[in-house]
What does this fold into?
Amino acid sequence: MKVLLMGDASAYHATLARGLVELGHDVTVASNGGNWMGTARNIDTSRRRNKLGGALLWARLNTLLASKLKGYDVVQLCTPTFVELKPQRIKPLFDRLKRNNGSICLSVLATDTQYIRLAADRSDILRYSEWQVGGEPTPYAQRYSERLREWHSHALTDLCQHVYDHVDGVATALYEYHKVCEQFVPQSKLMYAGIPIDCSKDVHQSISADGPLRIMLACHKGREIEKGVDRMLPIVRQFAEDHRGEVEFDFVQNVPYEQFKQLMDRAHVVVDQLYSYTPATTALMAMRKGRIVVSGAEKEYYDFVGEPHPEKVPIINADPADPNRLYADLEQLLARRSEWAEMGRYGAEFVKRNNDALIVARRFEELWQRS
It folds into this structure.
Protein backbone atom coordinates (compact mmCIF):
# COMPACT_ATOMS: atom_id res chain seq x y z
CA MET A 1 0.00 0.00 0.00
CA LYS A 2 0.96 3.60 -0.53
CA VAL A 3 0.78 5.22 2.93
CA LEU A 4 0.99 8.84 4.11
CA LEU A 5 1.80 9.36 7.80
CA MET A 6 0.71 12.95 8.42
CA GLY A 7 2.18 14.70 11.45
CA ASP A 8 4.32 13.21 14.20
CA ALA A 9 5.07 13.31 17.92
CA SER A 10 8.03 11.76 19.74
CA ALA A 11 9.06 10.08 16.45
CA TYR A 12 5.96 7.85 16.58
CA HIS A 13 5.19 7.98 12.86
CA ALA A 14 8.87 8.09 11.87
CA THR A 15 9.44 4.82 13.75
CA LEU A 16 6.19 3.28 12.51
CA ALA A 17 7.34 4.04 8.95
CA ARG A 18 10.35 1.73 9.41
CA GLY A 19 8.09 -1.16 10.37
CA LEU A 20 5.71 -0.50 7.50
CA VAL A 21 8.56 -0.34 4.97
CA GLU A 22 9.83 -3.68 6.27
CA LEU A 23 6.36 -5.09 5.55
CA GLY A 24 6.65 -3.86 1.97
CA HIS A 25 4.63 -0.64 2.04
CA ASP A 26 5.54 2.60 0.24
CA VAL A 27 5.57 5.12 3.11
CA THR A 28 5.83 8.90 3.21
CA VAL A 29 6.12 10.84 6.49
CA ALA A 30 5.00 14.47 6.40
CA SER A 31 5.78 16.28 9.67
CA ASN A 32 7.61 19.13 11.36
CA GLY A 33 10.14 16.66 12.79
CA GLY A 34 9.01 17.45 16.31
CA ASN A 35 10.65 20.88 15.85
CA TRP A 36 13.87 20.79 17.90
CA MET A 37 13.85 16.95 17.98
CA GLY A 38 14.62 16.81 14.25
CA THR A 39 13.00 13.42 13.65
CA ALA A 40 12.97 11.80 10.21
CA ARG A 41 10.43 12.87 7.59
CA ASN A 42 10.11 12.98 3.79
CA ILE A 43 7.97 16.12 3.59
CA ASP A 44 8.71 19.01 5.94
CA THR A 45 5.61 20.73 7.35
CA SER A 46 7.41 22.86 9.93
CA ARG A 47 6.18 26.34 10.71
CA ARG A 48 8.34 29.43 10.97
CA ARG A 49 8.39 31.04 14.42
CA ASN A 50 7.07 34.47 13.46
CA LYS A 51 3.74 36.21 12.90
CA LEU A 52 3.50 35.00 9.32
CA GLY A 53 4.41 31.39 10.16
CA GLY A 54 0.84 30.06 10.01
CA ALA A 55 -0.01 31.89 6.79
CA LEU A 56 3.18 30.68 5.08
CA LEU A 57 2.60 27.06 6.13
CA TRP A 58 -1.03 27.25 4.95
CA ALA A 59 0.15 28.62 1.59
CA ARG A 60 2.75 25.82 1.21
CA LEU A 61 0.19 23.14 2.02
CA ASN A 62 -2.13 24.54 -0.65
CA THR A 63 0.51 25.08 -3.35
CA LEU A 64 3.95 23.45 -3.26
CA LEU A 65 2.90 20.50 -1.07
CA ALA A 66 -0.64 19.97 -2.33
CA SER A 67 0.31 17.46 -5.05
CA LYS A 68 2.47 15.51 -2.59
CA LEU A 69 -0.46 14.93 -0.22
CA LYS A 70 -2.80 13.03 -2.52
CA GLY A 71 -3.07 9.65 -4.19
CA TYR A 72 -2.40 7.47 -1.12
CA ASP A 73 -4.23 4.27 -0.23
CA VAL A 74 -4.17 5.26 3.44
CA VAL A 75 -3.55 8.51 5.30
CA GLN A 76 -2.76 8.13 9.01
CA LEU A 77 -3.07 11.37 10.98
CA CYS A 78 -1.10 12.19 14.12
CA THR A 79 -3.90 13.59 16.34
CA PRO A 80 -6.69 15.88 15.04
CA THR A 81 -4.22 18.80 15.20
CA PHE A 82 -1.77 17.14 12.82
CA VAL A 83 -0.24 20.40 11.57
CA GLU A 84 0.58 23.63 13.43
CA LEU A 85 -2.37 25.66 12.17
CA LYS A 86 -5.54 27.09 13.67
CA PRO A 87 -8.40 24.56 13.88
CA GLN A 88 -10.38 26.44 11.23
CA ARG A 89 -7.44 25.93 8.83
CA ILE A 90 -6.93 22.25 9.71
CA LYS A 91 -10.57 21.30 9.08
CA PRO A 92 -10.59 22.05 5.29
CA LEU A 93 -7.14 20.43 5.01
CA PHE A 94 -8.55 17.29 6.62
CA ASP A 95 -11.49 17.33 4.20
CA ARG A 96 -9.12 17.69 1.24
CA LEU A 97 -6.97 14.77 2.46
CA LYS A 98 -10.11 12.65 2.77
CA ARG A 99 -11.29 13.66 -0.70
CA ASN A 100 -7.97 13.04 -2.45
CA ASN A 101 -6.95 9.74 -0.85
CA GLY A 102 -8.31 6.35 0.15
CA SER A 103 -8.91 5.52 3.82
CA ILE A 104 -8.10 8.14 6.43
CA CYS A 105 -7.34 7.05 9.99
CA LEU A 106 -6.26 8.67 13.24
CA SER A 107 -3.36 7.92 15.59
CA VAL A 108 -4.39 8.87 19.13
CA LEU A 109 -1.08 9.63 20.79
CA ALA A 110 -1.59 13.00 22.46
CA THR A 111 -4.20 15.16 24.12
CA ASP A 112 -7.30 16.25 22.22
CA THR A 113 -10.66 17.67 23.27
CA GLN A 114 -12.29 14.25 23.53
CA TYR A 115 -9.57 13.04 25.92
CA ILE A 116 -9.84 16.24 27.97
CA ARG A 117 -13.63 15.98 28.13
CA LEU A 118 -13.50 12.50 29.64
CA ALA A 119 -10.12 12.12 31.37
CA ALA A 120 -10.05 15.53 33.06
CA ASP A 121 -13.58 15.44 34.41
CA ARG A 122 -14.37 11.76 35.08
CA SER A 123 -12.34 9.68 37.53
CA ASP A 124 -14.63 6.69 36.89
CA ILE A 125 -12.87 6.13 33.52
CA LEU A 126 -9.31 6.84 34.68
CA ARG A 127 -8.34 7.08 38.33
CA TYR A 128 -5.90 9.79 37.37
CA SER A 129 -4.50 11.81 34.49
CA GLU A 130 -2.36 14.93 34.17
CA TRP A 131 -5.56 16.86 34.92
CA GLN A 132 -6.97 15.02 37.96
CA VAL A 133 -6.01 12.47 40.60
CA GLY A 134 -8.93 10.79 42.31
CA GLY A 135 -11.25 13.51 41.07
CA GLU A 136 -9.11 16.33 42.48
CA PRO A 137 -7.32 18.77 40.14
CA THR A 138 -3.57 18.30 39.75
CA PRO A 139 -1.03 21.16 40.02
CA TYR A 140 -1.08 21.24 36.20
CA ALA A 141 -4.85 21.69 36.07
CA GLN A 142 -4.70 24.37 38.75
CA ARG A 143 -1.91 26.38 37.16
CA TYR A 144 -3.00 26.02 33.55
CA SER A 145 -6.77 26.21 33.85
CA GLU A 146 -6.79 28.44 30.76
CA ARG A 147 -5.49 25.49 28.72
CA LEU A 148 -8.57 23.53 29.72
CA ARG A 149 -10.69 26.41 28.46
CA GLU A 150 -8.70 26.49 25.20
CA TRP A 151 -9.22 22.75 24.67
CA HIS A 152 -12.93 23.27 25.28
CA SER A 153 -13.10 26.14 22.79
CA HIS A 154 -15.70 25.83 20.06
CA ALA A 155 -13.09 25.77 17.26
CA LEU A 156 -11.02 22.93 18.75
CA THR A 157 -14.05 20.94 19.89
CA ASP A 158 -15.60 21.26 16.44
CA LEU A 159 -12.38 20.13 14.71
CA CYS A 160 -11.85 17.11 16.97
CA GLN A 161 -15.48 16.02 16.65
CA HIS A 162 -15.32 16.41 12.87
CA VAL A 163 -12.14 14.31 12.64
CA TYR A 164 -13.45 11.52 14.88
CA ASP A 165 -16.77 11.50 13.00
CA HIS A 166 -15.15 11.17 9.56
CA VAL A 167 -12.06 8.97 10.01
CA ASP A 168 -12.29 5.34 8.92
CA GLY A 169 -10.31 3.98 11.85
CA VAL A 170 -8.70 4.98 15.16
CA ALA A 171 -5.40 3.55 16.50
CA THR A 172 -4.49 4.26 20.14
CA ALA A 173 -0.94 4.52 21.47
CA LEU A 174 -1.57 4.15 25.21
CA TYR A 175 -3.89 2.15 27.48
CA GLU A 176 -5.38 5.37 28.87
CA TYR A 177 -6.12 6.80 25.42
CA HIS A 178 -7.79 3.52 24.51
CA LYS A 179 -9.99 3.53 27.63
CA VAL A 180 -11.16 7.04 26.81
CA CYS A 181 -11.75 6.23 23.12
CA GLU A 182 -13.85 3.22 24.12
CA GLN A 183 -16.41 5.68 25.47
CA PHE A 184 -17.25 7.20 22.06
CA VAL A 185 -15.49 5.38 19.17
CA PRO A 186 -17.34 2.37 17.71
CA GLN A 187 -15.49 -0.86 18.50
CA SER A 188 -15.39 -1.71 14.79
CA LYS A 189 -13.26 1.40 14.15
CA LEU A 190 -11.00 1.15 17.21
CA MET A 191 -7.63 -0.64 17.48
CA TYR A 192 -4.95 -0.57 20.19
CA ALA A 193 -1.63 -0.17 18.39
CA GLY A 194 0.85 0.73 21.12
CA ILE A 195 4.04 2.74 20.61
CA PRO A 196 6.50 1.52 17.95
CA ILE A 197 10.13 1.07 18.99
CA ASP A 198 12.87 0.29 16.48
CA CYS A 199 14.17 -2.82 18.23
CA SER A 200 16.68 -3.52 15.46
CA LYS A 201 18.36 -0.16 16.16
CA ASP A 202 17.80 0.28 19.90
CA VAL A 203 19.37 -2.94 21.16
CA HIS A 204 19.76 -4.32 24.68
CA GLN A 205 22.98 -3.30 26.43
CA SER A 206 23.53 -5.00 29.78
CA ILE A 207 23.75 -2.68 32.80
CA SER A 208 26.98 -2.79 34.76
CA ALA A 209 26.56 -2.95 38.52
CA ASP A 210 29.98 -1.36 39.02
CA GLY A 211 30.29 2.27 40.05
CA PRO A 212 27.53 4.72 41.00
CA LEU A 213 23.86 4.38 40.07
CA ARG A 214 23.36 6.83 37.18
CA ILE A 215 19.89 8.37 36.98
CA MET A 216 18.64 10.47 34.07
CA LEU A 217 15.44 12.51 34.17
CA ALA A 218 14.30 13.77 30.76
CA CYS A 219 11.57 16.29 29.99
CA HIS A 220 10.49 18.69 27.26
CA LYS A 221 11.03 22.23 28.50
CA GLY A 222 7.71 23.82 29.40
CA ARG A 223 6.00 20.48 30.08
CA GLU A 224 7.47 19.84 33.54
CA ILE A 225 4.18 20.28 35.43
CA GLU A 226 2.15 18.41 32.81
CA LYS A 227 4.41 15.36 33.12
CA GLY A 228 4.76 15.57 36.91
CA VAL A 229 8.47 16.39 36.70
CA ASP A 230 7.89 19.30 39.09
CA ARG A 231 7.01 16.71 41.76
CA MET A 232 9.60 14.03 40.88
CA LEU A 233 12.64 16.24 40.24
CA PRO A 234 13.15 17.42 43.87
CA ILE A 235 12.76 13.83 45.11
CA VAL A 236 15.38 12.47 42.72
CA ARG A 237 17.73 15.40 43.43
CA GLN A 238 17.40 14.83 47.16
CA PHE A 239 18.04 11.12 46.71
CA ALA A 240 21.22 11.86 44.72
CA GLU A 241 22.35 14.39 47.33
CA ASP A 242 21.72 11.97 50.21
CA HIS A 243 23.67 9.22 48.42
CA ARG A 244 26.53 11.31 47.11
CA GLY A 245 29.23 9.06 45.68
CA GLU A 246 26.74 6.23 45.14
CA VAL A 247 24.42 8.10 42.77
CA GLU A 248 24.93 10.42 39.80
CA PHE A 249 22.04 12.46 38.38
CA ASP A 250 21.49 14.16 34.99
CA PHE A 251 18.51 16.40 34.19
CA VAL A 252 18.11 16.53 30.39
CA GLN A 253 15.86 18.89 28.43
CA ASN A 254 15.29 19.59 24.74
CA VAL A 255 18.30 17.97 23.11
CA PRO A 256 18.15 16.59 19.53
CA TYR A 257 16.74 13.09 19.25
CA GLU A 258 19.99 11.27 18.42
CA GLN A 259 21.93 13.07 21.18
CA PHE A 260 19.12 12.25 23.60
CA LYS A 261 19.48 8.53 22.87
CA GLN A 262 23.24 8.72 23.44
CA LEU A 263 22.69 10.32 26.86
CA MET A 264 20.27 7.52 27.67
CA ASP A 265 22.97 4.93 26.92
CA ARG A 266 25.07 6.01 29.92
CA ALA A 267 22.19 5.86 32.42
CA HIS A 268 21.09 2.95 34.61
CA VAL A 269 17.69 4.49 35.43
CA VAL A 270 15.58 6.78 33.23
CA VAL A 271 12.86 8.78 35.00
CA ASP A 272 10.04 9.68 32.61
CA GLN A 273 6.61 10.77 33.84
CA LEU A 274 4.17 10.63 36.75
CA TYR A 275 0.61 10.72 35.36
CA SER A 276 0.71 7.67 33.09
CA TYR A 277 -0.69 4.15 33.35
CA THR A 278 1.57 3.11 30.49
CA PRO A 279 5.30 3.36 29.76
CA ALA A 280 5.48 5.86 26.90
CA THR A 281 8.13 6.48 24.23
CA THR A 282 11.07 7.54 26.41
CA ALA A 283 10.45 4.72 28.89
CA LEU A 284 10.08 2.08 26.18
CA MET A 285 13.23 3.22 24.37
CA ALA A 286 15.13 3.06 27.66
CA MET A 287 13.75 -0.39 28.44
CA ARG A 288 14.75 -1.67 25.01
CA LYS A 289 18.28 -0.48 25.77
CA GLY A 290 18.19 -2.49 29.01
CA ARG A 291 17.60 0.45 31.31
CA ILE A 292 15.31 0.51 34.36
CA VAL A 293 12.63 3.19 34.14
CA VAL A 294 10.39 5.26 36.38
CA SER A 295 7.11 5.68 34.55
CA GLY A 296 3.56 4.37 34.35
CA ALA A 297 3.16 0.63 34.90
CA GLU A 298 -0.25 0.07 36.41
CA LYS A 299 -1.79 -3.39 36.79
CA GLU A 300 -4.52 -2.32 34.36
CA TYR A 301 -1.87 -1.81 31.68
CA TYR A 302 -0.18 -5.19 32.23
CA ASP A 303 -3.59 -6.90 32.09
CA PHE A 304 -4.58 -4.93 28.97
CA VAL A 305 -1.53 -6.05 26.95
CA GLY A 306 -1.75 -9.61 28.31
CA GLU A 307 1.50 -9.55 30.30
CA PRO A 308 1.76 -11.03 33.81
CA HIS A 309 3.08 -8.56 36.37
CA PRO A 310 6.79 -9.47 36.53
CA GLU A 311 8.45 -10.44 39.78
CA LYS A 312 11.46 -8.25 39.08
CA VAL A 313 9.73 -5.25 37.58
CA PRO A 314 11.85 -3.25 35.10
CA ILE A 315 9.44 -0.32 35.57
CA ILE A 316 9.16 1.54 38.85
CA ASN A 317 5.54 2.64 38.80
CA ALA A 318 5.37 6.35 39.64
CA ASP A 319 2.31 6.89 41.83
CA PRO A 320 0.68 10.33 41.45
CA ALA A 321 -1.27 9.77 44.68
CA ASP A 322 2.03 9.27 46.57
CA PRO A 323 5.00 10.57 44.54
CA ASN A 324 7.23 10.57 47.65
CA ARG A 325 7.21 6.76 47.47
CA LEU A 326 9.72 7.19 44.65
CA TYR A 327 12.51 7.91 47.17
CA ALA A 328 12.00 4.52 48.89
CA ASP A 329 11.76 2.75 45.50
CA LEU A 330 15.10 4.22 44.41
CA GLU A 331 16.67 3.32 47.74
CA GLN A 332 15.49 -0.26 47.34
CA LEU A 333 16.87 -0.35 43.80
CA LEU A 334 20.25 0.89 45.02
CA ALA A 335 20.34 -2.01 47.49
CA ARG A 336 19.47 -4.56 44.76
CA ARG A 337 22.53 -3.89 42.62
CA SER A 338 22.91 -7.57 41.68
CA GLU A 339 19.44 -7.55 40.03
CA TRP A 340 19.96 -4.56 37.70
CA ALA A 341 21.13 -6.55 34.69
CA GLU A 342 18.28 -9.07 34.96
CA MET A 343 15.69 -6.30 35.31
CA GLY A 344 17.15 -4.58 32.25
CA ARG A 345 17.08 -7.79 30.23
CA TYR A 346 13.44 -8.41 31.13
CA GLY A 347 12.53 -4.86 30.07
CA ALA A 348 14.26 -5.28 26.70
CA GLU A 349 12.39 -8.53 26.06
CA PHE A 350 9.09 -6.94 27.16
CA VAL A 351 9.48 -4.16 24.56
CA LYS A 352 10.46 -6.64 21.85
CA ARG A 353 7.29 -8.66 22.51
CA ASN A 354 4.89 -5.74 22.71
CA ASN A 355 6.31 -2.70 20.91
CA ASP A 356 8.66 -3.76 18.14
CA ALA A 357 7.96 -1.46 15.16
CA LEU A 358 7.16 -4.50 13.01
CA ILE A 359 4.53 -5.74 15.51
CA VAL A 360 2.94 -2.30 15.77
CA ALA A 361 2.99 -1.93 11.96
CA ARG A 362 1.05 -5.21 11.64
CA ARG A 363 -1.60 -3.81 14.02
CA PHE A 364 -1.97 -0.81 11.72
CA GLU A 365 -2.31 -3.15 8.74
CA GLU A 366 -5.15 -4.90 10.55
CA LEU A 367 -6.88 -1.56 11.21
CA TRP A 368 -6.59 -0.52 7.54
CA GLN A 369 -7.96 -3.85 6.35
CA ARG A 370 -11.01 -3.29 8.55
CA SER A 371 -11.46 0.36 7.47
Notes: The mean pLDDT is 92. The chain has two domains: 2-196+356-370, 213-355. Residues 198 and 357 are 5 Å apart (CA to CA). The chain has 15 helices and 14 strands.
